[in-house]
């Protein structure tokens, strides 16, 4: 997959669209999806396989710098696929974006209702990823089936203050750079 495709997927799905100065507090970052209170409680973790210019492995998407921060590369795919219930369907995906929530970001303001707002936001990000993938001739698959403890451990999350919520696999079939991924659900 071209690196530009991954870059545009991340920028369009959850990247900063504009910054407005706010005096001594710095600035307000706006993104392409709605977020209750503009709090943007999600963090994106990206499992990369065969993306030009990037080593295969696990990355964190640094939104403010629009950059991928490498987290690990050893044993990534075996451990990641074991955490997914849908692993066989996405074994050869170029990218899997895992959305994780930092719960206190929303719950400090909205209490327990903040959890609902976080889930809605994850749905918006997933839908945007799928639409952007389709626009680029890529296939996508939304996945909510995973073993929570395993996936949180894999990502380095405590599962209480920050936890995985949802994921989207995106990519080309192996050896066919220009055709969309065919997903079989049988």
Notes on the protein architecture:
It is a single chain. With 186 residues, the protein is of the alpha+beta class. The protein has five helices and eight strands; from the N terminus they run H-E-E-E-E-E-H-E-H-H-E-H-E. It has helices at residues 3-14, 76-83, 103-110, 113-135, 148-155; strands at residues 16-21, 27-31, 42-48, 57-62, 67-72, 95-102, 139-143, 162-171. A six-stranded antiparallel β-sheet has the order 5-4-3-6-8-7, with helices on both faces. Strands 1-2 form a two-stranded antiparallel sheet. Helix 3 packs across helix 4. The longest helix has 23 residues, at 113-135. It is globular. 37% of the residues are buried. Residues 179-186 have low confidence and may be disordered.
């Amino acid at each position: 997959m071209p690196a530009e495709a991954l870059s545009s997927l991340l920028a369009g799905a959850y990247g900063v669209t504009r910054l407005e100065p706010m005096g001594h507090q710095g600035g307000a970052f706006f993104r392409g999806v709605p977020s209750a209170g503009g709090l943007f409680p999600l963090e994106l973790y990206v499992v990369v396989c065969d993306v030009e210019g990037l080593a295969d492995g696990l990355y964190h998407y640094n939104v403010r710098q629009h950059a991928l921060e490498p987290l690990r590369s050893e044993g990534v795919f075996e451990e990641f696929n074991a955490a997914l219930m849908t692993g066989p369907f996405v074994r050869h995906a170029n990218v899997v974006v895992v959305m994780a929530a930092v719960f206190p970001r929303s719950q400090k303001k909205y209490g327990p209702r903040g959890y609902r707002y976080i889930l809605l936001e994850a749905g918006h990000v997933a839908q945007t990823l799928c639409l952007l993938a389709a626009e680029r001739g890529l296939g996508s698959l939304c996945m909510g089936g995973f073993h929570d403890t395993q996936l949180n451990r894999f990502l380095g999350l405590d599962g209480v203050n920050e936890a995985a919520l949802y994921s989207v696999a995106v990519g080309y079939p192996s050896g066919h750079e220009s055709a969309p991924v065919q997903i079989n659900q049988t």
